[in-house]
Design a protein that fits this description.
Blueprint lengths: L1 H23 L6 H6 L4 E2 L4 E3 L6 E3 L8 E6 L4 H18 L4 E7 L3 H10 L5 E5 L3 H6 L6 E5 L4 E8 L4 H13 L3
Parallel strand pairs: 4-5, 5-6
Antiparallel strand pairs: 1-8, 2-3, 4-7, 7-8
Helix pairs in contact: 3-6
């Protein structure tokens, strides 16, 4: 009986992964691809629940601020490796009004809560339980980091894995200084 439950859960997870891949590679998930080609594109709007505490965060509510969006998962080794740099960079830029958002992809909330506590995530982390927001951004895995300018547009660079402080600083500077 237990084997059947595990098998059923595996099938459901595989189907969900296939759905996310399909959405990411269809017309809805072109953000990453376009940004990788040097284009500036409108950020997909979202409202997601916080991992810790209550309430939701809406990207629209952050209009006028530069936003760093980092997609992660609690079992992702590169996510764990870059978290210290993300925390330090978020603290450094908070004084200048830059907002960091972590988005936990397709996980049980308790796993995300443990990650946030263990790695001392100092900024809002949100739950994208069905992967819909990640799919609209066109992510293909975790970690992935995007920069959103004050006008609500995703700008280059798009960082896939191994985010370093220098790369974060450069993306933030660009988000703060992006013109029309």
């Amino acid at each position: 009986m237990r084997l059947l439950r595990v098998l059923a859960a595996g099938v459901v997870a595989a189907l969900l992964a296939l759905l996310v891949w399909d959405v990411a590679h269809s017309s809805g998930g072109k953000v990453a691809r376009d940004v990788d080609k040097g284009r500036i594109v409108p950020a997909p709007q979202f409202t997601l629940p916080r991992v810790a505490g209550s309430g939701h965060v809406s990207l629209a509510s952050l209009r006028g601020k530069a936003v760093v969006v980092n997609f992660w998962q609690s079992d992702c080794v590169p996510c764990k490796q870059e978290q210290g740099d993300l925390n330090r960079t978020a603290a450094k830029w908070a004084k200048k009004g830059v907002v960091f958002l972590g988005i936990d992809e397709i996980e049980v909330r308790s796993f995300a809560q443990r990650y946030v506590e263990r790695y001392h995530v100092s900024y809002d982390s949100l739950v994208d339980g069905d992967g819909g927001v990640g799919a609209r951004f066109g992510i293909t895995g975790t970690p992935e980091t995007f920069f959103i300018d004050r006008r609500g547009r995703v700008i280059p660079p798009h960082i896939v894995a191994n985010t370093k402080r220098a790369d974060l600083d450069a993306g933030i500077m660009r988000a703060l200084n992006t013109e029309a």
